[in-house]
Specification:
Layout: E1 2-3, H1 4-17, H2 23-34, H3 42-45, E2 49-50, H4 56-70, H5 75-79, E3 81-84, E4 87-90, H6 103-116, E5 122-126, H7 132-140, E6 145-150, H8 153-166, E7 171-175, E8 194-198, H9 213-216, H10 232-237, H11 240-243, E9 249-253, H12 259-267, E10 272-278, E11 284-291
Parallel strand pairs: 5-6, 5-8, 6-7, 8-9
Antiparallel strand pairs: 1-2, 3-4, 9-11, 10-11
Helix pairs in contact: 1-2, 1-4, 2-4, 6-7
Length: 292
């Protein structure tokens, strides 16, 4: 018979020996996930005994989960959940894991629409992944109509699950390549302002091997690879020929050190006024180009 505290200590030791930075936190989250305990409730169970056969299967699953985390697999993939803007999103292998810095993209998009009087805008979230960006915008702008674009089949399935969980009537998913499917890109609400938002792939090819293994070896390269200089998708988004649309605003997340180049790209478009917004670390993280 094994006690919870013994299982916890084994998990912590295993993760620490594997070089995981937060072994205690990760072990707690994995225990609570596998045994289906409430968040932050581990201390209530620490002295409990895990007798056979009732706990044999969850103990086995916990050891597998620890092994996956020890191999540097992202925690979000193991517990199948990531938090974004305070909400839980289904997150599994095959989709980019939502990150806190991307919440700024939502904030800038919502602020831009509110300041411009575009509360009813048609908003295209290109390369939506889990759907977290577009869903959060739709939640904050209930009069808007949000279209989530995703070409990856794995990511589209996960996005669909997240859509079902929130049950929003003003957001829909299109499983297609935004830059290839001309008919699907036709405007649904031509009388509304059009805002394109995106967190596109922006990692330069030569920097791939410098990424942490938890990203490089597990997250989908389709969502990371931005071409030779990392700017391929920004060029496409800023090209009216590629998108067959002239939006009222184009708002994107960028990688470290890319904000000036992307802003210059947007400023090269006729009638655009652009701005860079820094994240909490002072890094230029979002570039917004507004057609004036």
């Amino acid at each position: 018979m094994t006690a919870v505290n013994e299982l916890f200590r084994w998990g912590v030791d295993t993760l620490r020996d594997s070089g995981i930075e937060s072994p205690e936190l990760d072990t707690r989250l994995l225990l609570e996930h596998v045994f289906q305990w409430k968040p932050n409730s581990l201390q209530l169970h620490m002295n409990a005994s895990l007798g056979e056969p009732d706990h044999a299967q969850p103990k086995h699953h916990f050891k597998i989960a620890i092994s996956r985390r020890a191999a540097d697999e992202p925690l979000a993939y193991i517990i199948e959940t990531a938090f974004f803007c305070g909400q839980e999103y289904v997150t599994r292998p095959g989709v980019l894991i939502p990150r806190p810095e991307t919440e700024l993209l939502v904030d800038v998009a919502v602020r831009t629409c509110s300041d411009k009087g575009w509360a009813n805008a048609e908003i295209w979230d290109v390369g939506t992944g889990t759907g977290c960006i577009g869903i959060e915008i739709a939640r904050r702008l209930p009069e808007s109509q949000v279209v989530l674009w995703e070409k990856s089949e794995d990511a589209a399935k996960i996005c669909s699950q997240n859509l079902s969980r929130f049950g929003l009537s003003n957001v829909r998913l299109i499983h297609a390549d935004f830059f290839s499917d001309e008919e699907l890109r036709s405007r649904s609400f031509k009388d509304r302002p059009l805002v394109i938002v995106s967190n596109p792939p922006y990692i330069p090819i030569m920097e791939f091997m410098e990424l942490p293994s938890t990203v490089r070896d597990f997250e989908p390269h389709l969502a990371l690879n931005g071409g030779i200089d990392g700017l391929d998708y920004y060029r496409l988004l800023a090209d009216p020929v590629a998108t067959e649309a002239v939006p009222n605003a184009l708002i994107v997340e960028v990688g470290m050190g890319q904000s000036d180049e992307v802003r210059e790209l947007f400023d090269g478009l006729e009638g655009v006024s652009s701005a860079v917004f820094d994240d909490l670390q002072g890094i230029g993280r979002v570039v917004a180009g507004v057609f004036v």
